[in-house]
Amino acid sequence: MAMIAYKCPHIEVWVVDISEPRIAAWNSPNLPIYEPGLQEIVEQCRGKNLFFSTSVEEKIQECDIIFVSVNTPTKKSGLGSGRAADLKYWELVGRTISKVATSPKIVIEKSTVPVRTAAALDRVLNAQKTTTFVILSNPEFLAEGTAIRDLSSPDRILIGGPQNEEGLDAIAAVFDVYANWVPKEQIITTNLWSSELSKLVANAFLAQRVSSINAISQLCERTGADVSEVSRAIGMDSRIGPKFLQASIGFGGSCFQKDILNLVYLCEQFGLKEVADYWAQVVNMNNHQQEVFTRRMIEAMFNTVSGKKIAVLGFAFKKDTGDVRETPGVKVCELLMEDAAVCSIYDPKVKREDAIWEMEQHGVKCSDKLFQFTESAEEAVKDAHAIVILTEWDVFKTYDYGKFYAMMQKPAFVFDGRNLLDHSALRKVGFEVHAVGKPTIKAAESVNTYVGA
Ligand code: UGA
User: Which residue puts its alpha carbon closest to atom 31 of ligand 1?
Assistant: First the structure.
């Protein structure tokens, strides 16, 4: 919404939420989320044509186009538990709009929703026939950390809607909003279901690439191949392309897992068991990758980490965000703490309370003794047996690892879950380095001796 306000000074944008503290934060100098470049844009537009308010009903009445961006978490109980999206917030918004709207509205699905949500929304909105509602799907494709760049020059904008006169008029109205800055040929219009499904499928394909390269990373570790070299070699095939081939500790984030599970549920509902199993495997592989990585850590450290301090660098699910939803850090820290390790975590943007909240969402209890957050990487590393890199923050590349080595217990280990650091430099310093999809060479051994090969 900030980007629409920024690019379209003639359009008045109101962001409304029932949460007073959240709206207060949006109106303050400290925005409630960290996203590079967002603060500047909000500050330029706020009070001019971008406003934040809790007057939900009043603004529904006044606005012509309503983007619904409430969350759609995975259901925790009841039918479809663990896979289907929970649409209770959606339904609530639908009911509020239908109660208060007195003039025709274009209602846009911006949150990722299961396919055919629009049909359900249509029934909720039009149950009372107070006015005309046209429901469109306009999914968001931005990625966290690069949101501003993705929004100002998107690969495409997708608008789906009913293929009748009212629907096509509504699509044209939303098309015109984006055409203020997006080249027209990059704005695609489709029917509603194609648009809803494309959002899930785009995320499923991206996640599938990560799981595919992660699966290969495990084979690399056994064979002595280097996954970065394999990624480079296959990515230069223009049919494959170089992006999303970075082997890692596994993907996180609020979307990939949720959307795939949603896709799986959808397939099951339509009796497509094999299709459901196929996509479910992308998530299974991701969970497996996190477990394999952590098991490998424990094995390398003489099969026990009990009482050992482990410096965890990064807890966010990717760099340039403070978001910890579904971060692989949860599984890694859970397994380490199960073995009584002390996780000493440093992340430039993650707050301990947010990390604890996410751990609790996964049923993991965090004691003050085993789950600590520090103010600096140095504090986390002091007296630690190992450093584990879980997020690819650029600043982690700039540290003096020679100094860190001197501060640590020996033998000192680095487990690089993001293949971020210069491993040969670390080995020269004396570290035993383990990385994802790379042959492991013990510091003292010759370059030809592979552990596990
Ligand atoms: C993802 C999609 O990329 C967006 O297009 C989509 O709009 C968004 O979900 C959404 O549905 O809201 P996001 O989750 O913010 O965006 O971040 P990504 O850059 O896709 O990264 C997801 C995870 O995959 C991260 O944990 C990242 O570290 C991991 N990843 C990504 C890898 O492990 N390897 C890669 O090569 C790429």
Answer: 244
Q: What residue's CA is closest to ligand 1, atom 6?
A: 141
According to the model, what pLDDT value does residue 118 have?
84
> In the structure, what pLDDT confidence band is assigned to residue 117 with cuts at 50, 70 and 90?
confident
Which atom of ligand 1 has the smallest separation from the CA of 391? 28
User: Matching CATH topology for 2-197 and 198-453?
Assistant: yes
> Which position has the token pair 């497509």?
272
Residue-level pLDDT at 119: 84
The vertex-394 CA angle with 71 and 229, nearest 5°, equals: 95
| Residue 44 clears pLDDT 60, i.e. is over it | yes
Q: What is the pLDDT of residue 440?
A: 74
Q: Inform me whether the pLDDT recorded for 268 exceeds 80.
A: yes
| 0.90 surpassed by pTM | yes
343 in catalytic set: no
Which residue's CA is minimally distant from atom 28 of ligand 1? 318
For the chain, give every domain's residue range.
Answer: 2-197, 198-453
Instruction: Say if domain 2-197 classifies as CATH 3.20.20.70.
Output: no
Catalytic residue among 8, 45, 220, 255: 255
Quick one: pLDDT band at residue 210, thresholds 50, 70, 90? very high
Secondary structure (DSSP) of 53-69? ES-HHHHHHH-SEEEE-
Tell me, what's the pLDDT at 449?
Answer: 44
| Range 14-32 average pLDDT | 96
Domain 198-453 sits in which CATH superfamily? NAD(P)-binding Rossmann-like Domain (3.40.50.720)
Atom number in ligand 1 closest to CA 317: 26
- Give the other-Cβ count within 10 Å of 219's Cβ: 12
Ligand 1 atom index nearest CA of 250: 33
pLDDT interval class at 122 (50, 70, 90): confident
Q: Does residue 432 sit in helix, strand or coil?
A: strand
Q: Among candidates 388, 390, 330, which has minimal Cα distance to 355?
A: 330
Which backbone phi and psi does 320 adopt, to 5 degrees? Answer: 60, 25
From the alpha carbon of 199, which atom of ligand 1 is closest? 11
Most ligand 1 atoms within 8 A of CB, residue of 205, 248, 416 to mutate? 248
Residue 9 C-alpha to ligand 1 middle, in angstroms? 31
Q: pLDDT grade, residue 86 (50/70/90)?
A: confident
Q: Which of 255, 263, 321, 326 to mutate to test the pocket of ligand 1 (most atoms within 8 A of CB)?
A: 255
pLDDT average, residue stretch 372-393: 98
How does 285-321 read in b/e, with b if 16+ C-beta sit within 10 Å?
bbebbbebbbebbbebbeeebeebbbbbbbbbbbbbb
